[in-house]
Amino acid sequence: xxxxxxxxLFEPLQQALSTHRQIILEAPTGAGKSTALPLAMLSWPSINxxxxxxxPRRVAARSVAHFIAQSLGEKVGDxxxxxxxxDTKVSRHTRLEIVxxxxxxxxxxxxxxxxxxxxxxxxxxxxxxxxxxxxLALTLEVQDSLRDxxxxxxxxxxxxxxxxxxxxxKATLLVSEGRSFDVEQVYxxxxxxxxxxxxxxxxIAESVKTDSPxxxxxxxxxxxxxxxxxxxEINKLQRLLSQKVDTQVFLLCxxxxxxxxxxxxxxxxxxxxxxxxxxxxxxxxxxxxxxxGITIVVDSGYKREASFNPRTGVSRLSLKRIxxxxxxxxxxxxxxxxxxxxxxxxxxxxxxxxxxxEAPEISISELTTMxxxxxxxxxxxxxxxxxxxxxxxxxxxxxxxxxxxxxxVDANHKILPHGxxxxxxxCHPRLAHMLLQSTVLAKTQKQPELVSLACLLAxxxxxxxxxxxxxxxxxYLPLATQGLMxxxxxKWQASLSVSSDIKQLARDAxxxxxxxxxxxxxPDRIAQARGKQGFRLSNGTxxxxxxxxxxxxxEWLVVADFQESQGRNAGRVYLAAAINPEHLKHDLGLxxxxxxxxxxxxxxxxxxxxxxxxxGELIVSRSLESNVDSDLIVQALISHIxxxxxxxxxxxxxxxxxxxxxxxxxxxxxxxxxxxxxxxDLLATLSEWLAPYLVDVNSIAKLQKLDILSQVKNLxxxxxxxxxxxxxxxxxxxATGTSAPIHYQIDEASDKGCEDIDQAxxxxxxxxxxxxxxxxxxxxQEALGLSQSPLLLHGKLVVTMELLSPAQRxxxxxxxxxxFWQGPYVEVKKEMRGRxxxxxxxxxxxxxxxxxxxxxxTPGLK
Length: 862
Hints:
The protein is α/β, with parallel strands linked by helices. It folds into 6 domains: 5-175, P-loop containing nucleotide triphosphate hydrolases (Rossmann fold, 3-Layer(aba) Sandwich), CATH 3.40.50; 183-362, Rossmann fold (3-Layer(aba) Sandwich); 394-521, no CATH class; 524-583, no CATH class; 593-644, no CATH class; 729-862, no CATH class. It is globular. It starts with 9 loop residues before the first helix and ends in a 27-residue tail after the last helix.
């Protein structure tokens, strides 16, 4: 192995190992951290035990293990081995094991003391895969409570944006230089007129030509690595390129996670003599892998990201731009062994607008498996683990709810015996629950083959990249009888102490048995047809099936796999089984619940009650009820009000004024702990404040006779009502004895009476988000003698006065009465004296006694 930058850290690292148990190693692309470092560590006498190195991807784990074993002149499985799902090559002589993420967490769960293991290395920790974050957290807990002699090395290409030092403050930090050759950047943005895949095909075809105007000739003798978002795009690009390049010279090699190990090894290996490769890869080729002979990278700039939607319980697949960090990693693939060129299919000015780094998976992923891991570990709160990033609360809540529904944990998130058994099966909690419950079903129905059928279904649902055969899951069962899927089926059968002829079972499985088993795993995904709108799931989510697919004609389904995607309002179903309506109540009886409901019939203008049998939000059957319980009517009234809004109640301007006054009081006198009278909050709490007054209401007419204002006022304590009247009175007592109403306005509110503030008014009470005003309408003669505008809210709110003529028409609007008397009033007086000569228009209004009469009737005036 040639000299690598990481070798400069061998001595400092050995010294650190003698004094520290946590080491952070920052080593950029090409430093040799994934290969040269673990190889060297095998010969260090200070390491007395096995070394585990975590690689995020299976293809990288196998590749690294093969490379290190070859460097030792050994076979994989001797000193160096690997463990990935479905493939293990280790022996009792193995001292360095390369493992994938899920394998590490299971090893820790099964042996928390990690006996015989001296060092755990986390490679490419900056990629922030969910199992890596969990594995790191569990390792830290093991180190803290059980194995203070265990060494943890966290390796990252960059520490930028990675809170590793905050999580491990006592760790020693070592930094290595990278080794990568110069990579020339070329930008070839897609034009609007051309689909980006076609543009990419043209760019690649052009890049392999010796006279390419964009790729310098010195890079033309190497192979090309093209980065794409997923398998679908890889297959499409492969078809396009097969028509544009000479496939006798250029070998088109896909590289993605679902390929067989042999297919992946073929893509990674160097091109045969006289040939060049065009490797079409997903982001599995971004790190850890060195693909021989690559001198040109063509980067689409896209990735496919699955973002969990807690409302529907599935992930939405979206095509997104990669981050700057990912773009740098991809470009670096062209300069691992020699100078290279990276062609980016976006504009150069776009590069700086890309996000700095990818979002950690823990912030966007489903957490059901992680929650079960935590429960098995003995932790009831995911956030209590020493994690790099805390997951979203709603994602945690959704995960715990599902585990509780499947009876894997109790209400306090403590794992139940059923949950422990499910964890031991090593698959998604939904599938584990189905497998375990199939044993119960097999006994009660005297159908032992149901257990093996459940194993086949689980294998199909765990598999990725299956050839498309339609939505009916039974068509895929024969695939589970061969290769790695069959091995997994046999493993589950052994764990559940059953054995069947799975090939015959795959051919002869009854649709009824399939749907019954799937309903165990997906009780929230029972689907009911709703005409041209597709299907509605029992959790309320809408889904669709291609109309050409036979499954679209059924009335009831159980949906095993569906996904949301960009540009679609409803999820698309990929795997499902039909449910015979005649068997529905018998086979899914445990999912059916009975409800009595009362609703308002808009057309008939009356309430009606019915008994409903439901699966989640789906109505299986319904029948009218003759006797309507008063509690049901109350609930129906509340539902009706919530659907129509407060406007259907007996509300007048006094109600809306009360809302405005309390809103202002909340903002500027919060010390009195005011309740919210916002319409949305009142609607949400109808069952608390209005329900007691609905007991004798059985019609909309009676509802509209209720004194709603009084009920809303009762939400304020007597003391709050008195304080409100002091701070923000409904009326202002004028010197003439007139009680003039004050009209309050708030521009933020959407309620009647709280809108349309005159932006031209003199003054309003303003906060960051709310502008409020108190408007007092009174005849000018009754405001005489006032030297300034009235003040409310202990002087915080100046009352805006709308001064009226004797005919009650507006003549002035001001929040500064003193300035008005001295200025604008002079012109008002001139005009009004001629129009209303019998009324008082004094020269000194601030010092004149107010009156509500004409001059003749005003005492003291002649």
